[in-house]
Design brief:
379 residues, globular, mainly beta, 22-stranded mixed sheet
């Protein structure tokens, strides 16, 4: 399975995945046409209004094309300007099956998942969590690598499912020494109702979350974490990977020991921590507390509903703020600067800015232990 982001086709680099999928040639043609229109919209001298209309019309044509595949070998959905493509396989329920040469699948239906919280623990491997409008769910494990038959997976992987007090727990671990994790790649895809509260843990893989609400707790010991189209409460922690969030809102907490944090189209209360990476934010609305021990911070703020706090021990801070913002601002750094177009009242020296914008309001603080602070307008 894979996802095609129609807003970021990147010259169809990810369309190359379609080369290995039979009977999807016409879908590829539609995507190529759409990519051309998007490129024209972004780069052409013609008006965005006319090219935007062409893009929307191409999306409608693409959706009609996708509907033709509903009864075929693929499950293809267009949602939020993304295409989700999954090949259909006939596999036995709750048992390892060889879906195609070298690809082994375990599938378990989760009836009535809408009434339950979910917990997934992997001793190794990647986790994908996808929200749907269905009241039921399912979990699919896919294994590839140095394994020659499904019986070997049954012998080496321990799968435990438990349901207690409206909570379903699913755990996968290796019951052999040395661990089978050295020989196979494991990926778990969980499909659940959108409002499901989820707790996901993996000791050595990536975690992706798409189209969910509710309360999410995501922990990985060494991989990346990505949230897309999320609304609710989310805590994401990784010991050595990057964290990204797009179209997210609510009470959000991201923490990584050594990776970058990147968010886009975010609102609510955002708490961002990294031990040694950069923090980048675009189209932010709400309240932000961002801190890095050894990287740069770049934030484009559309509107604020609470304090904005930025801190780095050894890096630069770059803020883009609306000219009409009402704020009390304090900034410290090796060098500091604020755009003259702001209605700023206060004091400004080489290493310090302190005063008000448009008479004052919500506090904004930026502190660099060793680095520069620049405050500019995004209008």
């Amino acid at each position: 399975s894979f996802v095609i982001d129609l807003q970021n086709l990147q010259n169809l680099n990810n369309i190359r995945n379609l080369k290995n999928l039979d009977n999807l040639e016409s879908l590829e043609v539609e995507l190529q046409h759409l990519d051309k229109l998007i490129d024209e919209k972004n780069n052409s001298a013609v008006s965005h209004e006319s090219t935007g209309f062409s893009v929307e019309r191409a999306l409608q044509q693409l959706e009609r094309q996708i509907q033709k595949f509903e009864e075929g070998d693929f499950n293809i959905k267009l949602h939020n300007k993304k295409i989700f493509i999954n090949r259909r396989y006939e596999v036995e329920e709750a048992s390892w099956s060889e879906a195609s040469p070298g690809v082994y699948v375990y599938r378990k239906t989760l009836d009535g998942a809408a009434d339950e919280d979910m917990q997934l623990d992997l001793s190794f491997g990647n986790i994908n969590i996808v929200g749907t409008d269905s009241e039921d769910g399912e979990i699919v494990l896919q294994a590839t690598g140095n394994v020659d038959n499904p019986d070997r997976l049954k012998e080496n992987l321990l799968i435990n499912i438990a349901r207690n007090d409206n909570r379903t727990s699913f755990a996968v671990s290796s019951n052999q020494q040395p661990s089978i994790s050295d020989r196979i790649n494991l990926e778990a895809t969980i499909t659940v109702p959108r409002h499901t509260n989820f707790e996901a843990n993996t000791a050595g893989g990536h975690i992706t979350v798409n189209h969910l609400k509710g309360n999410q707790q995501l922990v990985t010991a060494g991989g990346h974490i990505a949230l897309d189209d999320f609304d609710g409460t989310a805590t994401a922690k990784t010991s050595g990977g990057h964290i990204t969030g797009k179209q997210i809102s609510g009470d959000i907490s991201f923490q990584t020991s050594g990776g970058h944090i990147k968010i886009e189209q975010a609102s609510g209360i955002l708490k961002l921590r990294t031990g040694g990476g950069h923090i980048t934010g675009k189209q932010i609305n709400g309240e932000v507390n961002a801190k890095t021990s050894g990287g740069n911070i770049s934030a484009e703020i559309d509107s604020i509903e609470g304090p904005l706090e930025f801190s780095t021990s050894a890096g630069n801070i770059s803020l883009l703020l609306p000219r009409s913002i009402n704020a009390d601002i304090t900034a410290h750094g090796t060098q500091t600067s604020i755009d003259n177009s702001f209605n700023f009242q206060g004091t400004q020296t080489k290493g310090k800015i302190e005063g008000t914008i448009n008479g004052g309001g919500i506090p904004i603080t930026a502190h660099c232990g060793y680095g520069n602070v620049s405050v500019k307008t995004n209008d």
